[in-house]
């Protein structure tokens, strides 16, 4: 029994005789997904740093901002 998620078999041309475009198209068809030139960036997920005052949440956020670009934070408080 075949796997319904797997694309149908596509013959891959010989690397020595195929031009680059033909080879890429065959590989894309075989994988069932196009190649991309831009890097894959997953959707960001929120991180939550709960805790009482003075436990170091701000220090953790500050350090993350130092080592990673594009990190933003929001402070939410309630009484």
Question: What would the keywords be for this entry?
Answer:
79 residues, mainly alpha, elongated
Could you describe the 3D structure shown?
29% of the residues lie in helices and 0% in strands. The chain is mainly alpha-helical. It starts with 19 loop residues before the first helix and ends in a 12-residue tail after the last helix. The model has no long low-confidence stretch (mean pLDDT 79).
Short summary:
With 79 residues, the protein is mainly α. It has two helices and no strands.
Secondary structure elements and pairings:
Blueprint: H1 20-31, H2 57-67
Q: What's the helical proportion of residues?
A: 25-40%
Counted beta strands? 0
Rough shape? elongated
* Biggest sheet features: none
Structural class: mainly alpha
How far is the N terminus from the C terminus?
61 Å
Helices and strands, in order, run as HH
Average per-residue pLDDT, rounded, comes to: 79
Give the strand content.
under 5%
- The total count of helices amounts to 2
Q: What is the rounded Rg? A: 24 Å
Unreliable residue stretches: none
